[in-house]
């Protein structure tokens, strides 16, 4: 009995809280303007074929997804070029809810944060996810300054994640911030995160695992964080 009590205590001591920061892919979900509509089509059913199978028709930047350098650079790396270790690491979720719409998050905000310099992943909680499903979601969201983007790229962060539809202002057709971060070849971009308000203070462990397909300029990903 003592042994079983020991096992139960070990399980309790090592219990983890796992947080899901991923949007569920579903018909009618918000898509960046101009993106083809996604389709989920049942091509086999339990009542007919004896099993269920669904065909997914969607773009590589649907829902919560990761951008690769190949997204904007002709000879840029694709996601399958990276080792699996690129997609796991330590995470800091930064509270950026104090920045107003259309504002820039400066490099000093990152430099002065106690966790940002050490974390391998940085997620920016702007609170913008509250507009999910509204036209406003795609307008005037806070973004990083060019200096902040350069700081993150120079630090070699594995990925920066945002609860917004993009890292560049919607009107920036040049994708300037994408070019700074993805141009380093080391720092990836995650967009359309959600649930960041549930993240506790301090470091978390993170896994941001994209679909692995050939030539992936980007891919939907399951993004989770956990802490003992």
What does this structure look like?
With 228 residues, this protein is α/β, with parallel strands linked by helices. It has a single domain, classed as 3-Layer(bba) Sandwich (Glucose Oxidase, domain 1), CATH 3.50.30.50. The protein has 4 helices and 12 strands. The strands form 3 sheets. A 7-stranded mixed beta barrel has the order 4-10-9-7-5-11-12. A two-stranded antiparallel ribbon has the order 2-3. Strands 6-8 form a two-stranded parallel sheet. A hairpin with a 7-residue loop joins strand 11 and strand 12. Helix 3 runs parallel beside helix 4. The radius of gyration is 19 Å and the shape is globular. The two termini are 26 Å apart.
**Shape from CA axes?**
globular
CATH architectural grouping: 3-Layer(bba) Sandwich
Mean pLDDT: 93
**CATH hierarchy, class:** Alpha Beta
Could you give the distance between the termini?
Answer: 26 Å
Number of helices: 4
State the domain count. Answer: 1
What's the helical proportion of residues?
10-25%
Question: Could you state the order of secondary-structure elements as H and E?
Answer: HEEEEEEHEEHEHEEE
Structural class: alpha/beta
CATH fold category name = Glucose Oxidase, domain 1
Strands in their spatial order, largest beta sheet: 4-10-9-7-5-11-12
The largest sheet is: 7 strands, mixed, barrel
Outline the low-pLDDT stretches.
none
Radius of gyration: 19 Å
What is the total tally of β strands?
12
CATH superfamily: Putative cyclase
Question: What percentage of amino acids are in beta strands?
Answer: 25-35%
Protein name: Cyclase family protein
Organism: Mesosutterella porci
InterPro entries: KFase/CYL, KFase_sf
